[in-house]
Amino acid sequence: MKKNQLNPLQAQLLKSGLASEAKAREAKTEKRKQDKLKRNNGVDIVDEVKLSAEQARQLQAERDRELNRQRKLAEEQKALAAQIKQITELNRIAQDANGLAYQFNHDNKVKTVYVNDKAREALINGRAGIIHLASGYEIVPAEIARKIQGRDVHSVIVLNQPTQDIAVSDDPYAAYQIPDDLMW
Fold first, then answer.
1. In angstroms, what CA-CA distances link 139 with 21, 44, 115, 146?
2. Ramachandran region of residue 115, left (φ > 0), alpha (ψ -120 to 50) or beta?
3. What is the largest CA-CA distance in the chain?
4. Is 28 exposed, middle or buried (0-12, 13-18, 19+ CB in 10 A)?
5. Which has the higher per-residue pLDDT, 85 or 27?
6. What does pTM read for this prediction?
7. Which end of the chain is more exposed for a tag (fewer CB within 10 A), N or C?
8. Helix-strand-coil percent breakdown of the chain, rounded to 5?
9. Same domain membership, residue 160 and residue 74
């Protein structure tokens, strides 16, 4: 077989030493036989190499789709975290390092934030909530905490239900004074 009768790919493979002339002749003969059978009998010969290549291509396409779905999901989570961080930072209530301790439970551990008396009462009465960010804990108004909770339930650590003021006539302990220095 002369080299000028080979297709360019076969010529390159022969030149690089990855194939031999015998293999090239064998492949050409096999192709002629399949073409002849197809013409004479109308039978389409199934090429295992083409079939396995097609299956491999389909598997790779499926893996690519799954990776793209995971990548898109990760980007959405990242965007959601950025939204939560921005909302929290724009609406946070200042903490007071010299203020009163407000303790709460997060991941089965007791955590503490220091706030002024007004913010502590808001937390207790459900008018404020505590949000967990990567940088720590922030206090935000209850409406903002509910918005964040709608985006990511796990970001809101403390959001008490608003308390209803008990009517004085229904309160059996209304006559008893609570000392000012008693902290819960």
1. 78, 72, 9, 12
2. beta
3. 114
4. middle
5. 85
6. 0.55
7. C
8. 55, 15, 30
9. yes
164, 114 contact by CB (below 8 A): no
Average pLDDT, the chain: 84
Joined tokens for residue 104: 């709460």
Residue 53 counted as domain residue: yes
**DSSP code of residue 93:** B
Token pair 């404020």 is found at 128
Structural domain count, the chain: 2
* Residue 5 structure tokens: 């009768």
Residue 115 resides in a domain: yes
pLDDT at position 3 is 46
Domain identity same for 35 and 50: no
Rg (CA), the chain: 37
Contacts of 16 (CB under 8 A, 6+ apart): none
pLDDT exceeds cutoff 70 at 45:
no
